[in-house]
Amino acid sequence: MKVLSTKSLDEAIIAQARSLGLDMEYMDFIETVRKDFDVTSVKTGFDSEVFTSANAVKYFFENKGAAELLSNRNIFSLSGKTQEELHKHDLNAILVEENAADLADAIIQSKSSKSVLHIAGNLTLDTLEKKLKAAGIDYNRLVVYQTILKGQKLTDADFDVIMFYSPSGIEGFFTNNEFDDQVTYCCIGNTTANALKGKYSDAKIILPLHPTPESMIDAIYQLTKPAIKP
Length: 230
Hints:
The protein is an alpha/beta fold. The chain has 8 helices and 11 strands. The chain has helices at about 10-20, 55-60, 80-85, 100-110, 125-135, 165-175, 190-200, 215-225, and strands at about 1-5, 25, 30-35, 50, 75-80, 95, 115-120, 140-150, 160-165, 185, 205. The chain has a 6-stranded mixed beta sheet with strand order 3-8-7-4-5-6, sandwiched between helices. Helix 2 (about 55-60) packs parallel to helix 3 (about 80-85) and helix 4 runs parallel beside helix 5. The longest helix has 11 residues, at about 100-110. It starts with a strand and ends in a 7-residue tail after the last helix.
């Protein structure tokens, strides 16, 4: 089975895929670039911070003095790579969910926040913002990185499965490539899957048990197993 990852992967993950008999290739369809910010210019009237991507965590801490903004504040996060990136800085989120919609619901239900600062990229979806504002929670966004669509065109389109990790990755891929109804698309989570469905409602989509590349590989591997007849 021939698989395309729409972003670069660690060699350990590539090795995992190949050990399962998957012919894995990867190509980056988006690029992220840090956007510097001045800590002293950030309005500090918020009680909580939200991280919805690993890049947001990474680029946030690359700014001098950024950690000061976390002092005595709640931290909310998506699971998977975002949570892992927070752990690298010895931080634990008090609320963790698999997607932005569920995280917004958890924040609202917890009644632990009146005002949040969302650490994000320039192309982050407004799912969190809309839900929190509708619940009367003050929302502000701090953009710490920019996502650039690379729009590369495939020279070899003969793939059985294509892996997507974000709505922006989908945009980058389909800038110069066509939808193929013979391909199965593996999306890292519901937010990404819904973005793909918004473009192609008939897309064949599979989801991993957990929002990680490793779990995506496992989900794809299941496609290679023969169906068990009752």
